[in-house]
Design a protein that fits this description.
alpha+beta, five-stranded parallel β-sheet, nine-stranded antiparallel β-sheet, 37% helix, binds ligand MV4, globular
């Protein structure tokens, strides 16, 4: 943990009461924030769309407000309805969670303009980090290492050619308004520049309404390592070490851990200091994350900053002994950060698996449905941050995260064993889940060695799912299904689909339902 205290911050800032918080989100993160409210003696206000009317976050909160029909654009993304809901329920603050409006500077500004406290960074910090070339300029000026490349958008193919020659091939074209991997183009040779330039501009315009593009050197075999930061209104910024997030598929993180096998105490101190400089340079407050790429020779480069609480904040909480949402409340009230005395270095190892309603045997196809049965893992060192219950209908309108399975143990090896055990305990019947992917990764030798980078899915992960599920799993799914439907018919369907070599638990269930309807 490193601390920086800028001279520019006010010596004393007025304390702002935060007595009732509107949680502008749904799912597990809404529950996470509501739980923190309860522990802090703060009242909570849930908001919900039509399909979420019976959801766990609605029942957990002290108050709840209906904000519209299922589509996010008509509910969770409606700034006007959220601020109205806060006014009507006399809330004095809004927590945005992650996703939805959490990184929209205009939302933070609208909340503040309405006389409410935004539980997150200042709108100006969101704005500065949202424009990737502006962020690169400011980071470079602050002495934060950025990937070699330009710091202004490129206007012409001549300028692009000159820049790419200077950088050296291969290069990567990125959207200035981008982030999260959309609008990126790898260019391996000068002949391909013009085509890639046009394509990247078109894609950026379509995705972000902003066609500006810039160029960087393409880094080889990087790990995605990010640093958690916390800032308060007094100008103090600290870091809470790294999270290793390299195991992802198509820019969706699958597994996160803290610490990283690739980071020792000296590197942690250097990356932490860089992240603190980055956050301080934009006047950052509240919880935020600096993303870096760490290459095999130990060099690291700033990529972007996520100006919100992240899905994977949990692994940091477990190894640093800090409640990040509680710290966000302290900052929102104008209080100084108050870290426990043991939070200086990571202790033990934490791993998170994102359990989604996706079929890992069908290219992670998102699937809705009703959860007929749920067994949540528990026991030593296990944390489940989820929102589903038996009876929950999982809508297809929102992201597919059902819950985060997070474990802690003293060493990485023990944490992996614990995760394998906890995954075995998790049973979700009725909706396909990504569970089996994680079970296979926990047993996979290169993962166990810590030999991971952003190519893990392509190199190893995809192949793990080529093998069909064990017959015993298909059988278990069928047994669960027989509790729901006609036994004899299911058995026949199951045997047929298994004989055809296409059996997966979720497909067996699906086929059984189809046949059940026909028969
Ligand atoms: C890169 C890169 C290699 N070299 N930049 C993807 C999302 C966005 N945050 C930046 N990304 C990347 N930028 C340079 N100069 C590789 C990626 C990248 C990646 C980064 C983090 C996690 C997963 C990734 C998957 C593919 C590509």
């Amino acid at each position: 943990m490193a601390t920086s205290r800028s001279d520019s911050g006010p010596a004393t800032a007025p304390l702002r009461p935060v007595r009732r918080v509107l949680v502008a989100n749904r799912g597990e993160i809404a529950l996470r924030v509501i739980r923190a409210c309860r522990e802090e003696g703060i009242e909570s206000v849930a908001v919900y769309s039509e399909p979420d009317r019976l959801a766990a976050h609605v029942r957990a909160a002290d108050h709840a407000v209906w904000i519209g029909p299922a589509p996010s654009a008509e509910s969770y993304l409606r700034i006007d309805k959220l601020i109205d809901a806060a006014r009507k329920t006399d809330a004095d603050a809004i927590h945005p969670g992650y996703g939805f409006l959490s990184e929209r500077a205009e939302f933070a500004a609208a909340v503040t303009d309405a006389g409410l406290v935004f539980i997150g960074p200042p709108a100006s910090a969101i704005q500065a980090m949202g424009d990737k070339t502006e962020a690169r300029r400011r980071m470079r000026a602050a002495g934060v290492p950025v990937v070699p490349g330009v710091v202004e958008p490129i206007a012409t193919i001549e300028a692009l050619t000159a820049a790419a020659r200077g950088i050296g091939f291969p290069v990567l074209l990125k959207a200035a308004a981008g982030g999260g991997g959309r609008g990126m183009r790898v260019v391996r040779a000068e002949a391909d520049l013009a085509g890639a330039f046009a394509a990247a501009q078109g894609e950026a315009l379509k995705a972000f309404g902003d066609g500006r593009v810039y160029v960087e050197r393409l880094l080889a075999q990087p790990r995605h390592v990010e640093i958690q930061v916390l800032g308060d209104v007094h100008g103090t910024v600290i870091h809470l070490g790294e999270r290793e997030c390299s195991i992802q598929r198509r820019h969706q993180k699958l597994i996160e851990e803290s610490p990283s096998v690739a980071v020792d105490a000296a590197l942690r101190a250097r990356m932490g200091e860089a992240a603190v400089r980055a956050a301080s340079a934009v006047g950052y407050q509240s919880a935020g994350t600096c993303e870096f790429l760490l290459v095999p020779n130990g060099e690291f480069y700033f990529l972007e900053m996520n100006t919100r609480l992240q899905v994977e904040h949990t692994v940091t909480e477990l190894v640093y002994g800090v409640d990040l949402v509680r710290q966000q409340f302290r900052v929102a009230r104008g209080e100084p950060l108050a870290l426990p005395p043991w939070s200086g270095d990571p202790r033990g190892w934490a791993i998170e698996c994102r359990i989604t309603a996706e079929d890992p045997f069908a290219e992670f196809m998102p699937a809705g449905g009703t959860v007929h049965y749920l067994r949540v893992p528990s026991g030593p060192g296990v944390r489940w941050d989820g929102w589903i219950e038996a009876g929950t209908e999982v809508p297809l309108h929102y992201d597919s995260l059902l819950g985060k399975l997070v474990v802690w143990s003293g060493t990485r090896e023990r944490a992996i064993e614990r995760m394998a055990r906890a995954l075995d305990e998790l049973i979700v019947v009725g909706v396909p889940t990504s569970r089996e992917f994680f079970q296979r990764v926990m047993a996979e030798p290169s993962f166990r060695r810590g030999d991971i980078d952003i190519e893990y899915w392509e190199r190893v992960g995809r192949g793990l799912m080529a093998r069909p599920p064990a017959a015993s799993l298909v059988e278990a799914a069928a047994i669960a299904a027989t509790l729901l439907e006609d036994e004899g018919r299911l058995h026949r369907v199951g045997q047929r689909s298994q004989a055809a070599g296409t059996a997966t638990p979720s497909r067996w269930l699906e086929a059984a339902r189809r046949e059940g309807l026909r028969g």
